[in-house]
Write the structure tokens for this entry.
Amino acid sequence: MATVRRTACNLCEAICGVLVTVEGGRVTDIRGDEADPLSRGHICPKAVALRDLQEDPDRLTQPVRRTATGWQELGWEEAYAYVAEKLQAVQKTHGRNSIGVYLGNPNVHSVGAMTHMPTVVRLLKTRNRFSATSVDQLPHMLAVHLLYGHQLMVPVADIDRTSYLLMLGANPLASNGSMMTAPGFGRRLKEVQKRGGRVVVIDPRRTETAAVADEHHFVRPGTDAAFLLALIQQIIADGHAKPAAYVDGFDQVVSVTRSWTPERAARVTGIDAETIRRIAREFAGAETAACYGRLGVSTQQFGALCQWAVQVLNIITGNLDRPGGSMFPRPAVDTLRGIGRGHIGVWKSRVRSLPEFGGELPASAMAEEIETPGEGQIRAMVTIAGNPVLSTPNGRRLDEALETLDFMVCVDPYINETTRHADVILPPTPPLEREHYDLAFHQLAVRNTARWNDAVLPRPSEARHDWEIFRGLGLALLRSTPRSRRRAIASLRLRLSPRRIVDLGLRIGPYRLSVRKLRKSVGGVDLGPLQPALPDALHTKSKRIDLAPALILDDLPRAAEVLLADRGADDGLLLIGRRHLRSNNSWMHNSARLVKGKPRHQLLMNPDDLKSRELADGQLVEISSAAGSVSVEVAASNDMMPGVVSLPHGFGHGRPGAHLSVANQVAGASANDITDPTLTDPIAGTAALNGVPVKVTAAPRG
Ligand SMILES: Nc1nc2c(c(=O)[nH]1)N[C@H]1C(S)=C(S)[C@@H](COP(=O)(O)OP(=O)(O)OC[C@H]3O[C@@H](n4cnc5c(=O)[nH]c(N)nc54)[C@H](O)[C@@H]3O)O[C@H]1N2
Ligand SMILES: Nc1nc2c(c(=O)[nH]1)N[C@H]1C(S)=C(S)[C@@H](COP(=O)(O)OP(=O)(O)OC[C@H]3O[C@@H](n4cnc5c(=O)[nH]c(N)nc54)[C@H](O)[C@@H]3O)O[C@H]1N2
Ligand code: SF4
Ligand SMILES: [Mo]
């Protein structure tokens, strides 16, 4: 008999509600849940991949250990004890910091990882902690930490009520939105337009999102800071700036932006001065407006400056904290409470002195910290839900470095490009076997809603949830730790189930909910549109916003120097990345259903750039940067800004030893074999994955 169960798709930040039909223990159908108050029935083609993940024969269900004769299964308790012993032995010989930890993206999509993983990481007591944050949203977190006093107090564009949406470096029609949970982003954009509002996109590629916008402008990669500074300057010059009473530092903003006229920004960005001036006036004059900048303006040389400027633009036009502007979600579990406010530069990386942020060092420093001998060298790695060989700059170098470690353990369901180097892999249950409450993305959602989901399918007896793995590992690590209050707290934290923790969070949360109440609601509880919350909700001690943090203002001279430098007759190209609706970072190419159809791995290049290099559409080319080179087919595209080429990240499969029967057949090169770990935004160490200088030539024959 078929039963229909409600759950959430947790593959991306849109957290769509889905209805899963199960017959005889197997999934037979997955569709959107109309009753979900946030996603309103929306899903994308990836939702069906939940079933593919469930049934993927390559997915591990038991711990495995690498031996001379191949991978061998081992029992869970044995695995925990072995891993704890190995990690502790490395630390005993080489010191605390000899363990490196890398935390990948799917951690934030799993309640069990959110509730239990941090305790285990803390028990390792190492400063060599890395995560996908520094190849992603770090600049957002830094900007809001400086302005609003908490690294996760991120406002989102109030898309459902705004009349003017200015988007930079975001392609939500492919990504489904990020740092902004707005399922059905396309539909929501259409609704803005139907209300008579305007959508403006700034991107070096005419993206899927640009195609539905009212207006799109090419921007030279890495130069958005100039565009944003000019908008601020123009709005101030027009007398349209009206910061709220709780905002300080406005005069400093006036003075540091004064020289950034639209004419100056035009020279830098490639967007003409009249357009910049008009956008400034339309933004300031709109009934309500929101500026939203995403990955393209984060993972670039001026990521921090850009994300600060995005906030400043919203603040000085009175759009922060007002309906239709940029607003703070108020989720049913206050995630901010459980996480620190953030800090920057309290310590530096050993080799290159890059700053920590929130206790993590930039992923760009990982390979060198493994390779460079001396006190504090990484000798063992722990990766949790990450594939840094494909996702961090110069992945090829990291690939080689990982092989030199004394020990490596990965919490991951696959033997892939990264985990093939592990000594032990601990695979967690797949999404349909897990309970879920979204601790991360209700915090970033454009509407306040709450939803608890029971597991759709039972967990096989030999499988373990991620939180059970962290409990097992954590308790094994604690076994040799002397008794103390800290040890007792860690042990208690590990023993509580995610359900208990979420229930507690809901009960003390602003709406006094509980798991029981949520389970009774069909599709989730609607808590209404976002509400104004400032200045009370600020986490700054003064309950005021300082618009002019020194860390950011001190970067303005660098911006002037770099952006205004004469590029001469440089015939080089700038590389940027892209995403496709049917793939997800580096790890979902093992679903045959998703990867079928037209190839999507090619380098996109403007036809004029091809012609001037005597290259032809479809030809195999070599792309080279300071970090290395890769060969890939090129595709001519009028959607590319001249001088800019685009390569998607997450490809480059087929490495020896990776057990990915479908993905290994997928063509394409890893963009991160040519991204350069020395290209970082120095303020926070975020990798500049976009705007990498490259040369493109015909690939050598043979
Ligand atoms: N050049 C370039 N590089 C980029 C980007 C780019 O745009 N361009 N984007 C960056 C961004 S935004 C991000 S977020 C990073 C992502 O970087 P990572 O997080 O390092 O990589 P993912 O590709 O998301 O790989 C996720 C890993 O988690 C495993 N996994 C999947 N589900 C689970 C689970 O439920 N539990 C556990 N324990 N493991 C799981 C997968 O098998 C895979 O190994 O890449 C970054 N790198
Ligand atoms: N289908 C799918 N969905 C995903 C993912 C996925 O891999 N596939 N990954 C998820 C993750 S981890 C994340 S972080 C989000 C990312 O979500 P988005 O940020 O919306 O995703 P991207 O497609 O990387 O969009 C970045 C855009 O920035 C542009 N860009 C590059 N350089 C510059 C620049 O210098 N200036 C400007 N203005 N634009 C620039 C690129 O052309 C691109 O269109 O997507 C999430 N959703
Ligand atoms: S947009 Fe697609 S991948 Fe993202 S949560 Fe919804 S169904 Fe899943
Ligand atoms: Mo990301």
